[in-house]
Amino acid sequence: MSTAAVMAKVISSLDWKGDLGPAPLPAEEAERLRFRIGEGATQWVAGAVEQALAALKTHIDDSLAPWHIFRAFGRHVLTAVLLRLAGEDELPAEKEAIDRVLAEDSVARDIPLSVVTRALRTAQREWLSLLIDAAIALGPDGIRVIPALATSLTETMDAWIGAATEAVAEERRRVYLVEQVRVRSAIESLVTPAPVDVEAATRLLGVPLAAWHLGCAIGAAPGVAVERRVLDGIVYVFGREVGERMLRYETSAGTVHLWVTTDRRSRVPRVEDLRVPAPLLVGIGEPHPGVEGFRRTFLEASDSLGLAASLGGSGGVSYIDAALAILLSRDEERARWFVEHELRGLAADSSEMADMRNTLRTFFDTRMRIAPAAERLFLHRNTLINRLERIQSLLGHSVTQRTAETQAALVLAELFAARDYARPST
């Protein structure tokens, strides 16, 4: 007798005689099965599924286990096996809906895929045992086709488990994307002045918003391509320097914003500590507490990155070193007017005036003390005094007058000189 004939005989011999009464199949599904595999095999499918579920319930302690989904899944798998043994490939119903519901339950309750797979393999063993019993009952011919029965069941179950695995993976991706959208929305709300639900945002973001936050912005000049692995390297270094609880937010322009949350005020890493490779640039804010601090350090880091990009060069800018320049250069036209007004002839674009401005900055940095300033500038004190007299004539007043305005103008002059130098010539 041919293998196909024996398989047909095995299927025709199937009937349910188990202790558990089979749950009735939906009428339309039962009718299709009876037409294709007979009344006995239809009853056998329903009964075999119930027996497998009973075995599973002894191993699974889950009051919310979706037994109706497992029941539908099992019926489709066993039907597919019998149709394959009968030489048919078409399934009586689509399985995508079952896979989707199973995946939604697994992901929603965070059930490991290994648990689902183990449950399905347990059912597979139950069904294989029942099929072997039916084959053995036919004598030598039935025994001869047991390997084919086992292969058919295993391959069919493998295919269905694979489909279920893909459905779970797709559901996880979908949930992850939905979660990412919610996280992005929460972050975007936090960096605007609008009121937010702090408790809800804390739960969603997974960081205590009442703690301290330190922001960092990473980017590059417009039109410059950056390898993600290089960018990720800077992210890793920043987190290692400051702390492990870190949020990451990426913009459509390719800028990456980071927040590291700590229990107390954290040390601010220097730009040099991050070893930023060209063409990347970073802006580092200052640590601040609470929801307002979350927004404030973000704005500081963003402004610092913007300043770094406008200056050109490499590395980046820390807000602590550039707060005044950032604030005063918001309106560049008026800031340049301010420089011209305060520095007068000292604002001229020449190497001599640049040297004079550096002399005055150093004088202010040393608290207007002649000896320390001369030492830092490698000048004789008399030479420094002569320079200061020249500077005073250029300013039109003593260097001890309007010191705040003069120092602010010096900062801006340095910023504009670096920015103008970085711009390509036309």
Radius of gyration: 37 Å
End-to-end Cα distance: 91 Å
Name the CATH superfamily classification of the largest domain.
Histidine kinase N-terminal domain
Proportion in helices: 55-70%
Q: Can you tell me the CATH topology of the largest domain?
A: Globin-like
Return the structural class. Answer: alpha+beta
Report the total helices: 17
The CATH architecture of the largest domain would be: Orthogonal Bundle
Largest sheet: 6 strands, mixed
Oligomer designation:
single chain
User: Ranges with pLDDT <50 over ≥5 residues?
Assistant: none
Instruction: Give the overall shape.
Output: rod-shaped
As for the number of domains, it is 3
Structure overview:
- With 426 residues, this protein is of the alpha+beta class.
- The protein contains 17 helices and six strands.
- The chain has three domains: 3-175, Orthogonal Bundle (Globin-like), CATH 1.10.490; 209-327, Alpha-Beta Plaits (2-Layer Sandwich); 330-422.
- Helix content is 64%, strand content 7%.
- Strands 1, 2, 3, 4, 5 and 6 form a six-stranded mixed sheet that branches.
- It is rod-shaped and about 120 Å long.
- The model has no long low-confidence stretch (mean pLDDT 86).
